[in-house]
Design a protein that fits this description.
heterodimer, A: six-stranded mixed β-sheet, 10 strands, about 25% strand, B: alpha+beta, six-stranded mixed β-barrel, about 60% helix, binds adenosine-5'-triphosphate, binds magnesium ion
């Protein structure tokens, strides 16, 4: 993919919040490399810095120290505009709270990043229709977020994150607000994306989600305490599906 | 008592937490009530001043004029003295119509012959210097102000240079420049001076037009017209030469000076009221979500709906009452400077009448109540749990606008979608602009009208005070409207930005730049600005046409359009700062705050 061999690469990453007595090291010296096509799961207790790490990877926050590369490009030194362009083209975010725009329909939510990237309304419509169909929402395109179930909302959010074919999809507890069935829907989509070669970083509290990943990183107090390659992957998902049936 | 105190404390805490909003509410309602109070007090102000001047100068109940100064002229006048209803008189005096030059300006002047001590009726109040003495002239105060002359200066009367020995005020003449009362119909603009009787002999030889005047006081001043009706025939059988001016007529004539100003102030105050409502409504709506949550909290701890309504309304109503008091006080302070533009009358402020106080108070309370009632009722109706979660509101889907905006560049797309979120606010902003531009256009129209100066032959070496007063009022109204429009524009942008913050943060995660967000927020205000401002052109013109008496001189069309289009860069500049601040907020923090 690039000279460093990873879609995402991080060296000596620090992020501090607050100062003096209230200083918090949310991320405390992290090194990481995510190769293209890998699904990386990040686990750890609450407050250990998982969300912060994800924000740093996607350029939503700036590190206090250290370097972040995305597709071989340093992003910690890029200005706000550059970061915006990067998010538009190279990163897709999925949040626990969905964060759909409530006054836009499902299709319009998915179209938005395509339009922001400067592509035509037609291209945006086509892309949204394709993604929503692919994620099993063909009959929900005109619904507003509040008319959708939690699982459907999250699938719309993933479709929106995938709208511009990002290099990496960053998901922060994507199943945190979902029940088992909806979680499985999301996992199926992730499996589907990974099969197509999509790089994914998923922060999760859910063992089942982590189990479907290629690799699992465990964080504690802003640091990586464990980094494990997981074997056979689709099998696990199939197992879960079986469990549900 | 405890409840009242609690309400008061809650209100105070809220004001302290949102001081800018409290100030904004105070400023808008104060401006509106001050303007309204001024407009309303203008109505009777002239009469008050005239009555005061009349009392201070032993003003006549009527003046009788007869052309010439020979025996026939004076005998007709003196015959009136003996009528049983007449209790006192002064004169007859001779009046000459000539010209006066001072400091490069020449004007018509009525030279009134006067004794060293004035008679019992019409004893002009000397405001500086002394009363007439041989070789010195006393100038009526309005005239002196217009000329810019003071005691000790020299003026040239009918070719003769004389020092000014005094400046005085009288109720026997209508205000400057309407001293020429001797003839039927409006005479030419003319000032008034008094000259010692012996000194006027030089004017007789100069062959100037001369009139005799007598000042009379009646037993019943209210019956002046009835007295004239019964005596006119005996004094002047042909009813051609003698001319009478009653004090009641003088009141009416003096008020003409303020005739233009009153509608300007009253209509201006309506526009200001509208802007106040628009601004306060935006504020109230912007706070609605927070208020709803506050209501949920109060309900959760067991507050009754009545108590909660009192808490929510008390703040706005208290501020409105405070603003009303401020507005009335401001009007009272500004009044002396407005009601006596000629300075020909004794300046005194009448203060607002009971009606004025009642009307402004009702309007101030109405502005506060109307704009907050909706959000308050809605907040009260919301279920407690929903109120705490603030999930009560369901967004409107505007598919059409969304589809159109999809074809536009990002800033326009974001801007249009912001408008789609709150179309009412865009309309409010457009109306804001219409109100402001209406005033600006009216001001330009007013300034384009030719004004006949008060100098000789309409020369503008002496300002037309009536027109000038109208223009000043229009300028004041326009300035007040612009200030409120500025406040409103900032409020609307800020409120929109606050409400749209989660949406804009999401757009940022999807790759919108801070610049695009800023531009989008500005566009949301700029789009309604243009139609709103353009609508102000016909509105302003219409207003001027309604109140213009005769022919209208049109200002160049480009001037009107430039004024309207100037609203665009002005709005862009005003929205830039709040939009930029809002766009710079941290995305991660906004989103995590949204999730709680
Ligand atoms: N804006 C901020 N200001 C101050 N401290 C912050 C801020 N954001 C995060 N933190 C702190 O940084 C640490 C890491 O936060 P982060 O949200 O990354 O944790 P997390 O691992 O995602 O937790 P969770 O699993 O509960 O979501 C926490 O201790 C948190 O309190
Ligand atoms: Mg987190």
């Amino acid at each position: 993919m690039n000279e460093f061999g990873g879609v995402v690469r991080v060296r000596g990453l620090f992020k501090e919040h607050g100062q003096g007595q209230g200083l918090v090291r949310a991320v405390d010296g992290v090194d990481l490399e995510v190769p293209a096509g890998q699904m990386l799961a990040v686990m750890g207790p609450s407050g250990c810095g998982k969300s912060t790490l994800l924000h740093l990877l996607g350029g939503l926050e700036r590190p206090s120290d250290g370097q972040v590369w995305l597709a071989g490009q340093r992003i910690d030194t890029v200005n706000e505009r550059g970061l915006a362009r990067l998010r538009r083209r190279s990163v897709g975010f999925v949040f626990q709270a969905f964060h759909l725009i409530e006054e836009l329909s499902a299709a319009e939510n998915v179209e938005l990043p395509v339009l922001l990237a400067g592509r035509s309304a037609r291209a945006a419509r086509r892309r949204a229709a394709f993604l929503l169909e692919r994620f099993g929402l063909a009959d929900r395109t005109r619904h507003l977020p509040w008319q959708l179930s939690g699982g459907q909302r999250q699938r719309v959010a993933i479709a929106r994150a995938m709208a511009n074919e990002p290099l990496v999809l960053l998901a922060d507890e994507p199943t945190g607000n979902l029940d088992t069935a909806a979680t499985l829907d999301v996992l199926r989509i992730f499996a589907d994306l990974r099969a197509a070669g999509q790089t994914l970083v998923v922060v999760t509290h859910d063992e089942r989600v982590a189990a479907t990943a290629d690799r699992l990183v465990t964080m504690r107090d802003g640091m990586f305490v464990d980094d494990t390659q997981l074997a056979g992957r689709t099998g696990r998902l199939d197992g879960l599906i079986g469990l549900e049936d | 008592m405890g409840r009242t105190l609690l309400i008061f404390r809650l209100v105070l805490a809220d004001v302290r937490r949102h001081p800018a909003q409290a100030v904004m509410l105070l400023v808008s309602i104060t401006a509106a009530t001050a303007m309204l109070s001024l407009g309303m007090s203008l109505h009777g102000a002239t009469e008050t001043l005239y009555r005061q001047t009349r009392a201070a100068t032993a003003g006549p109940d009527f003046v009788a004029f007869s052309p010439g100064s020979d025996r026939t002229a004076t005998s007709a006048l003196t015959s009136l003295e003996h009528a049983p209803e007449v209790v006192a008189h002064s004169g007859p005096y001779r009046q000459f119509s000539t010209t006066l030059t001072a400091r490069g300006a020449t004007a018509n002047v009525v030279v009134q012959g006067a004794g060293a001590t004035p008679g019992p009726v019409d004893r002009p109040l000397v405001t500086s210097g002394s009363w007439v003495r041989p070789g010195g002239v006393v100038v009526e105060r309005g005239f002196a102000n217009a000329l810019g002359v003071h005691v000790g200066d020299h003026v040239t009367v009918a070719g003769r240079s004389l020092p000014i020995v005094g400046i005085a005020v009288t109720a026997a003449y209508t205000v400057y420049p309407w001293a020429e009362m001797g003839a039927e119909g409006p005479g030419d603009n003319s000032g008034l001076v008094w000259l010692n009787e012996p000194d006027t002999r030089a004017l007789v030889s100069a062959n100037l037009s001369v009139t005799s005047a007598i000042y009379l006081k009646l037993r019943d001043p209210a019956a002046t017209q009835a007295f004239l009706d019964s005596h006119r025939a005996s004094v002047d059988p042909n009813q051609t030469t003698t001319h009478f001016v009653t004090w009641q007529f003088m009141v009416v004539q003096d008020s003409v000076m303020l005739k233009d100003s009153q509608p300007i102030l009253v209509i201006g105050s309506w526009l200001l009221c509208f802007l106040a409502i628009a601004g306060v409504a935006t504020l109230a709506a912007g706070r609605a979500a927070k208020q709803t949550r506050r209501v949920g909290l109060l309900k959760a701890v067991g507050a009754t709906p009545g108590f909660i309504a009192a808490v929510l309304l008390a703040e706005y109503l208290t501020l409105a009452l405070l603003a009303d008091a401020l507005g009335l006080t401001a009007a009272r302070l500004a009044e002396p400077a407005l009601i006596n533009p000629t300075a020909s009358l004794i300046t005194a402020a009448a203060g607002p009448t009971g009606t004025t106080i009642a009307v402004t108070t009702i309007i101030a309370l109405a502005v506060a109540a109307l704009t907050t009632l909706g959000p308050t009722v809605r907040a009260l109706r919301t279920e407690t749990v929903a109120a705490l979660a603030d999930t009560a509101h369901q967004p409107q889907h505007r598919a059409h606008l969304t589809r159109i905006s999809a074809m536009l560049p990002a800033p326009l797309l974001l801007g249009l979608r912001l408008i789609a979120r709150r179309p009412g606010r865009a309309i409010l902003h457009a109306c804001n602009m219409t109100a402001t531009l209406t005033a600006i256009i009216a001001l330009l129209m007013l300034n384009a009208q030719p004004a006949r100066g008060y100098g000789l032959g309409g020369s503008s070496s002496l300002t037309n005070l009536k027109v000038d007063q109208g223009r000043h009022m229009m300028l004041a109204v326009t300035a007040a409207l612009i200030i409120l429009a500025v406040i409103n524009t900032i409020t609307i942008t800020w409120t929109t930005a606050q409400e749209a913050r989660p949406t804009m943060a999401i757009a940022r995660t999807l790759g919108a730049t801070p610049g695009q967000i800023t531009a989008g927020l500005s566009v949301a205000q700029l789009l309604p600005t243009l139609p709103g401002a353009l609508a102000g052109i016909p509105m302003g013109i219409t207003l001027c046409l309604i109140f213009s008496a005769g022919d209208v001189t049109w200002p160049p069309a480009w001037l009107l359009f430039t004024a309207a289009l100037a609203a665009l860069p002005a709005t862009a500049a005003l929205t830039a700062v709040p939009a930029r601040i809002a766009a710079r907020k941290s995305v991660a923090q906004t989103l995590s705050a949204e999730a709680t």
